[in-house]
Amino acid sequence: MSHTEAVVCLNLLLFLHVVHTQLRNNGQQQWPVPYRRFDRRPAVDSYCEALYPFCPTGDRDGRIPYMRDSDVVSVYRLQTPVWEFKYGDLLGKFHIMHDAIGFSSSDTGANYTMEWYELFQLGNCTFPHLRPEAPAPFWCNQGAACFFEGIDDLHWSQNGTLEKIGEITGNQFNDMAQWVQDDNETGIYYETWTVRSDPSPNATVWFESYDCSQFVHRTYRKLTELGAKLSSRTQTNYTKIYLYSGEPTYLGNDSAIFGQPALKNLAVDIRKFYHTFRPHQSFIDFAISLLEAYKKVVLDKSFYLYYNFEYWHLPMKPPYLQITYEEVPLP
């Protein structure tokens, strides 16, 4: 590329950025903000470490077994309290649930579990690390699908749900498997929060979450598109974690905020906000951080959201935060 071509490309990028910003400022922003898709999944940064390894018994490359066309595959709805393996039903009492899908082949008798969750646990996907050598917060927020052989009946049924909701053919299963792999390559990051204007049914949704239950919903819809008939004998409820705010303000990405001297105060304020939610705090520090979080979110009515690798400011409003367990019917 010549020098002239490089200058033209740079000017075009700057022009597109200005137009994009003006569209937001002119009230033409699309709500909810569409979740950004990628061409492929990037490599994981070695700085990110998981307390519990991701998908330890699944295929390393995310491959899903092929089913014969004539096979009849049972589909199961799976739900259990988050971290049930460690805390039992404790988080279930607050309706903080994890969702997955089970499959059982009539040809082979093999059972399989499919779920989508954080590579580095929920805390790392919700709040970043602040590294002294890096001006911008550092995020370990990838999420991915995990497919492995077996269904742990006790894990899912003891404090949650293990229910057969339909049957599909082997061919439908294989088509779904290809869709899962494509979806997994392009939807790469986990998003904890759903952000709305208020709790009413007609509220404006500013941002949608992208988590385990959303993956389950997308898969159910895909199975229905492929001709599956799904039904449940019980109400199908799912966990939602809401933030409530007025209309969000777009701030920019890492290079726009943390690489610009003119935005130094904003950069400092974002780092101070996330410092409150830093990992590995002592009990005393955690107690202090809770008070700081209350001041920032409730008293100052301020929250910084990281979505699509860009920062937004949320002018918070009552009831500020809410965990619900609400019905999402099968498609």
TrEMBL record:
Alphabetized UniProt keyword annotations: Glycoprotein, Signal
Signal peptide bounds: 1-21
Superkingdom of origin organism: Eukaryota
InterPro entries found in the cross-reference section: CLN5 (IPR026138)
Reaction catalyzed: 2 1-hexadecanoyl-sn-glycero-3-phospho-(1'-sn-glycerol) = 1-hexadecanoyl-sn-glycero-3-phospho-(3'-hexadecanoyl-1'-sn-glycerol) + sn-glycero-3-phospho-(1'-sn-glycerol); 2 1-octadecanoyl-sn-glycero-3-phospho-(1'-sn-glycerol) = 1-octadecanoyl-sn-glycero-3-phospho-(3'-octadecanoyl-1'-sn-glycerol) + sn-glycero-3-phospho-(1'-sn-glycerol); 2 1-(9Z-octadecenoyl)-sn-glycero-3-phospho-(1'-sn-glycerol) = 1-(9Z-octadecenoyl)-sn-glycero-3-phospho-(3'-(9Z-octadecenoyl)-1'-sn-glycerol) + sn-glycero-3-phospho-(1'-sn-glycerol); 2 1-tetradecanoyl-sn-glycero-3-phospho-(1'-sn-glycerol) = 1-tetradecanoyl-sn-glycero-3-phospho-(3'-tetradecanoyl-1'-sn-glycerol) + sn-glycero-3-phospho-(1'-sn-glycerol)
Gene Ontology biological process terms in this record: aerobic respiration; lysosome organization; oxygen metabolic process; swimming behavior
Keyword Signal appears in the UniProt entry: yes
GO molecular function: hydrolase activity, acting on glycosyl bonds; palmitoyl-(protein) hydrolase activity
The keyword Glycoprotein is assigned to this record: yes
GO cellular component, as recorded: lysosomal membrane
Function: Exhibits palmitoyl protein thioesterase (S-depalmitoylation) activity in vitro and most likely plays a role in protein S-depalmitoylation.
PANTHER family, per the entry: CEROID-LIPOFUSCINOSIS NEURONAL PROTEIN 5 (PTHR15380:SF2), CEROID-LIPOFUSCINOSIS, NEURONAL 5 (PTHR15380)
Protein family according to the UniProt entry: Belongs to the CLN5 family.
Official protein name in the record: Bis(monoacylglycero)phosphate synthase CLN5
Source organism of the structure: Dicentrarchus labrax (European seabass)
Source taxonomy: Eukaryota, Metazoa, Chordata, Craniata, Vertebrata
